[in-house]
Amino acid sequence: MAEKMALAKAINESLRRALDADPKVVVMGEDVGKLGGVFRVTDGLQKDFGESRVIDTPLAESGIVGTAIGLALRGYRPVVEIQFDGFVFPAYDQIVTQLAKMHARALGKVKMPVVVRIPYGGGIGAVEHHSESPEALFAHVAGLKIVSPSNASDAYWMMQQAVQSDDPVIFFEPKRRYWDKGEVDTEAIPGPLHKAKVVREGTDLTLAAYGPMVKLCQEVADAAAEEGRNLEVLDLRSVSPIDFDAVQASVEKTRRLVVVHEAPVFFGSGAEIAARITERCFYHLEAPVLRVGGYHAPYPPARLEESYLPDLDRVLDAVDRSLAY
Which distant-in-sequence residues (6+ apart) come within 8 Å of 184 by Cβ? Predict the structure, then answer.
């Protein structure tokens, strides 16, 4: 039976299921226990599973991830929370130097089943270091899987698959979508973790996005439909690896592509998608692949973030430019 729940609640239920199913699963992070996390994503878990399974850690991101690596070496499956996106950088060394490399360094003999949860992105009026989108920094590092759900159902099932993965997974949670509700069937059979999904069929142009921007792209498609344009919306779901086959299949049908993400366009994930699809679909494309994202500037104060983040008009402008070719 499907149940309607918010994206944050879906992650909570998924973690609860993982903790219940495997005594080697532990949840760690700043304020994840008694408080239940600043967004209440882990609410009630420590009460039900105890302080040895849901652990309130010191304010030390490098220590949190380093401890998780040690636990993974001993057969545990740690799920660690980085309280906000901008707080991950003290742990960057542990993630890219140790976590991402351990499997290769051990010639495949050592698994690293660690999930690093990162609430990311803007749209909530937060202060500095609380609204960033650093996914491209991690996608560049071999050995890490990078995913980001856009809805409650994917959040539930992708977290299940991330916890079960023997490879480290960086799980980017779109904080502005935490309270968006959707149907979640906890008895469904999920598709592959890194498989993209067409969430709206179309024929004139493909909008590709992940995480917080998928909903925006659906709104753009609705607005474009009022002008007689039929846009396809592709939820990438995964940033590393990227399901290029799904993007290619969509572009071969629509012949145009606009990639949308909150992170800065400069050296962003959209650049890799644009380059790959240009190589794969050169004779199908009727316009260059366009990108819409944040600016190459520090994230602004909250009162200016609406001017920084991609919005309906900026994406529609890219659609108009693509269709004008």
Answer: 2, 3, 4, 5, 10, 13, 152, 153, 156
